[in-house]
Design goal:
The chain is mainly alpha-helical and 436 residues long. It has one domain: MFS general substrate transporter like domains (Growth Hormone, Chain: A). It has 19 helices and no strands.
Amino acid sequence: MLRLASASLAGTAIEFYDFFVYGTAAALVLGPLFFPSFSPLAGTLAAFGTFGVGFLARPLGSVVFGHIGDRYGRRPVLLASLLLTGLATVAVGCVPTYASIGMTAPVLLLLLRFLQGLGLGGEWGGAVLLTAEHAPEGRRGLWSSFPQIGPPVGFLLANGMILALSASLSEAQFTSWGWRVPFWAAGLLALAGLWLRRSVEETPQFRALAETGRRADAPLAEVVRGHWRLLLLTGGALAAAYAVFYAVTTWSLAYATAHLGVGRTVTLACIMAAVALMGLMTPLMAVVGDRYGRRPLCLAGCAACALWMFPLVALLRTADPLLMTLGFTGALLGMVTMFAVVGAYLPELYHPRIRCTGAAVGYNLGGVLGGALTPIAATALAAGSGPPWGVAVYLSGIAVVSLGCFALLPETNPVVVRRRAAAGTETGAAEAAAPA
């Protein structure tokens, strides 16, 4: 399990490195380089627009790779998605700017960002199912949290590299070529990830489906036809996690540097400290989910996010690094309370024959609802000179919607469900142990 989980974590970390390095570059340099005829605000919005395209591509990627995963196995998904995202990321670092090739530059940027999202849309389903379907049920949450550690690790890798370059290069050097280096480094990371995953075994549940001939012929059609309500609920439930994470890691970076005059290096350091703590808390929260259930943690995390958004904006507005770090940390701790357990929760909601498609599409639908629009909406809401309370309202509203969606989903932890059924505390709990 440790070998499998480590390979899964390494792959998701590399994939999210690719995805996050674009988000940081969009917040810092892509606007003036690829949209120079726009005003600074409009250029940032346009750069975040190309950032959002990656989220729009992720559900399509989860459909394509989910079909492969449900028809041909989880293992091919792990290799193909990593290769696609790595190649697209390296190519982003090679795109000439608007000054060199005109409108072709942002068009190429848009296309490559779409390919990035396509690959990442397939990565999560394959990586999570690799661990969830191998893990013993009493520790499924813990082992399935390893892929969930990948996003903070990828973020720290991406922003650590940008922070080092930003600190060591002049502004002119960073704008000219320094921002491209993290994109080129993605090629080496992708090769390392492919080497780690080369000997990964197929999961026992998929092998059983293949041997008995019970694989789904058209997984997406089966999910949409028979589980459309579950799909919408899982997408809405995960919207808050995406919205909070990208508000902290992407919008806050742009807002602090452009509106508050906080240095790029200082802001990145504050965000990275909060993300590092989030990564450390992920397996701990997953263990709590194994003990007490997935759903209570998801409800608690959404409630915490809804309550913390106004303090987040107030602390960010101070422009004090310690207070900003406190604001970011509170938001990400609320987010990770739910995020840590969804690696086990979403697969348990779907039957094995459609699990790769259902779990991945639901997960990435949450990315569209919460991640694609948040940097754009938050940038527009914060355009004035006063405190951006509109951003707090927006984020709290998404958290409340996600809270409602989680409230309509069942508990899936089989250990907890059996315990409740044995105690007679939940009517029909025995049936709830099956996929919803």
